[in-house]
Amino acid sequence: MSFELRGVSVRYSPVLPQLALSDVTLSIAQGEQVALIGPSGAGKTTLLHTFAFARQLDGGSLRALDAEPWGLSSSGRHALRSRIFLAPQTPPLPPRQRVVTAVLAGRLPQWSLYKALTSLFKPSDPQAAYDALAKFDLQDKLYARVDRLSGGERQRCSLARLLVSNAQALLVDEPLSALDPALARQTLDVLQQEASARRATLVCSLHQVELALAHFPRIVGLRAGRVVFDAPRDAVSEQMIAALYQQAGRDREPPASAGAEPGIVAGRGLASGCY
Ligand SMILES: Nc1ncnc2c1ncn2[C@@H]1O[C@H](COP(=O)(O)OP(=O)(O)OP(=O)(O)O)[C@@H](O)[C@H]1O
User: Fold this and answer.
1) CA of 19 to the centre of ligand 1 (A)
2) In whole angstroms, what is the distance from residue 190 CA to residue 161 CA?
3) Is the pLDDT of residue 162 over 90?
4) I need a surface site. Which of 16, 49, 178, 264 has the fewest CB within 10 A?
């Protein structure tokens, strides 16, 4: 099993009454490809960070790659973490760095400190960075500076890092926010082909509901920190989507229908695609 959450709660601060995740139970098998959808503030990012044990639990338990990260020593946790790639919503790319160096940073978890430092001055494997960038049609940017890239180029450059890593679990947070529709589809194709080729688990948060349903066999709907549905894409109806996004952002209480069949909301359908 890649990830198993049992009754997990996460709170950002003890002074904040609300839970970012509330009693979440979810299992994801190795090699599965899952889309997380839900309104802004639903807890998608928090869930991805929880999988990658970047956030402490306030309750419940987590298993990741068949280990219990919070029961390990910090060095054990670090070793386990190196097998997971978390691509954040805002790519942390140093602006003055060359793209080749930024992409090869995807290998940092596998490198010694010496190799990491020397690679800053002389990229250790520019061919690997070139090949990864080529999958996103960005190979001509190999030696460009990161701050000369467009937002969409930067986003794909950050995902090229994932391609050079050797992670067995790929956690990707809103990878399409700066991309046009054609690039968005291409980017998802690249991520999914890569995950399939290395039999890695892929969990991807998306605001583009249509793309989530078109690309991912399993869809998890989150709202107000809770799993509202977890279903094969063919079982996800327009009504479920409408209920998931109903009054998005206006409450942090679990919807009355959480865990049950959601109600029908008129006027919004899958055709509107991005909620
Ligand atoms: N650093 C933080 N400190 C305090 N609260 C936070 C922090 N990060 C997130 N939250 C809160 O936790 C909840 C879940 O946020 P999260 O970022 O996981 O949602 P999301 O579904 O990823 O949203 P979006 O789609 O807008 O990125 C929200 O209520 C948010 O305000």
Assistant:
1) 10
2) 13
3) yes
4) 16
